[in-house]
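Hey, quick one: can you model this chain's 3D structure?
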Amino acid sequence: MPKFVIERQYLVPMNQHIVVETESLGEACKKAVSDDIDWDTQEMDSDSARATTITEAKMVPEGPDCRGKGGREAPPQPSRRTTRLASDTQ
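Sure thing. Here's the predicted structure for all 90 residues.
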């Protein structure tokens, strides 16, 4: 039976409320997404985590001389099931 290495992920939003002083809203938005402001006061919003998705899948080849062989397969469509963190259930 074939074996597969699967990389999966789910995205958990991090948010932060910041005050930015600039000449215009456009400049404030540019500064807000720049690397000039640290994320030291961010909050994790685990209730808004997205569904688990497959980012890559690769078949594990069989046999003694199998290094570098084995093909990548296109990941399936994302699952509609939402993954919750263990701390959310407590």
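One thing worth noting: The first strand starts at residue 3 and ends at 9.
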